[in-house]
Amino acid sequence: MSSPASHPRLRLFDLPLDVIDLSDTLTLLGAWLADPARTPHTVVTLNPEIIVQSRGHPEFAQAVQDADLITADGVGIVYAAKQLRQQDVPRAPGFDIVKGLMERHGAGLRVFFLGAKPGVAEAAAQHAARDYGVGVAGIHHGYFGPEEDERVAQLVAASGANLLLTAMGAGRQEVFNQQWRGVLGVPVMIGCGGVVDVLAGTAELAPAWTRKLGVEWVWRVAGDRKRWNRAPRLLHFVQMVGAEKRRKG
Ligand code: UDP
């Protein structure tokens, strides 16, 4: 897949990363939404967890390789790009992309909310329709096995959605979007983890100060016991960046 026009593409740990800010991301996705050909596109918001997890998971790594747009979700990626590529990469986090699209396109969007526990995607859809006036193309929870992938992909395809929010956890969501992109046929498909939970109000958006500093994960890890086991993974990422830097230098 070629890099989005006029934006350089870096490689970080053998994964692609587009040097693109939020505003240009929204413009590019707007062009994909407006294209009458409805060519399917996948978006990955790269974070340290994706880099760490995809190393032992070739399908996941391939889904990131083949994505049409790969943005820097947070400060971990900005740090790695600076350390390893001496580049200042702007952030375009998943939540900001989704919110920005809803603000810009409102009723022009037909959103399929895929993922999270039963009831959560429904609440997210209701809130998005109320707050941004978006159309709801469809809703499905994210707890189904691979044997149901095709059925769900066809449901999305039949819905006529132009924006698919896939929130089924890192890895599962990127692989689903990429493997079924031809069936899904949605112009913009984003793997966007907890964004559906935030829209639903079941997870709180990290406070503005952490978002400004790009360290939302500190808040998420600290506030959610289930995530405490992830802190070592982030530390592992910093060590990985250091090791990679020594290897290259
Ligand atoms: N999720 C899902 N199906 C699964 C696992 C997770 O729909 O099999 C949902 C989960 O309910 C949450 C979102 O995916 O809404 C993100 O989950 P989590 O925070 O565990 O994943 P992360 O993306 O942070 O790895």
From TrEMBL:
It holds the Pfam family Glyco_tran_WecG. The keyword Glycosyltransferase applies. The keyword Metal-binding does not apply. GO terms for molecular function: N-acetylglucosaminyldiphosphoundecaprenol N-acetyl-beta-D-mannosaminyltransferase activity. Its EC number is 2.4.1.187. Keywords: Glycosyltransferase, Transferase. Transmembrane segments: none annotated. This is N-acetylglucosaminyldiphosphoundecaprenol N-acetyl-beta-D-mannosaminyltransferase. It comes from Deinococcus humi.
